Amino acid sequence: MPLKKYDICIIGAGSAGLTMAAVSANLGHKVALIERDKMGGDCLNYGCVPSKALLAAAKKGLPFNQAMEKVEQAIASIAPHDSQDRFEGMGVDVYRHQGRFISPTILKAGEDEIQAKRFVIATGSAPFVPPIKGLADTPYLTNETIFKLQQQPKHLVIIGGGAIGLEMAFAFKKLGSEVTVVEGAPNILFGSEPEAVAQVQKTLKDLNIQVYENAKVESTKATQSGVAVDLNDNVIEGSHLLVATGRQANFENLDLAKAKVETAKKIKVNNKLQTSQKHIYAIGDCASQNMFTHHASFEASVVIKRLLFGMFWHKNSQSMVPKVLYTHPEVASVGLTQQQASQKHGAQNVRCVHIPLSENDRAVCEGETDGFIKAVLNRKGYILGVTIVSPHAGELITPWTTLMTHKRKVADLSAVTVPYPTYSEINKKVASEFYKDTFYGKKVQRLSQLLFKLLG
Question: With helix as H, strand as E and coil as C, how does 276-293 read?
Answer without folding.
Answer: CCCCEEECHHHCCCCCCH
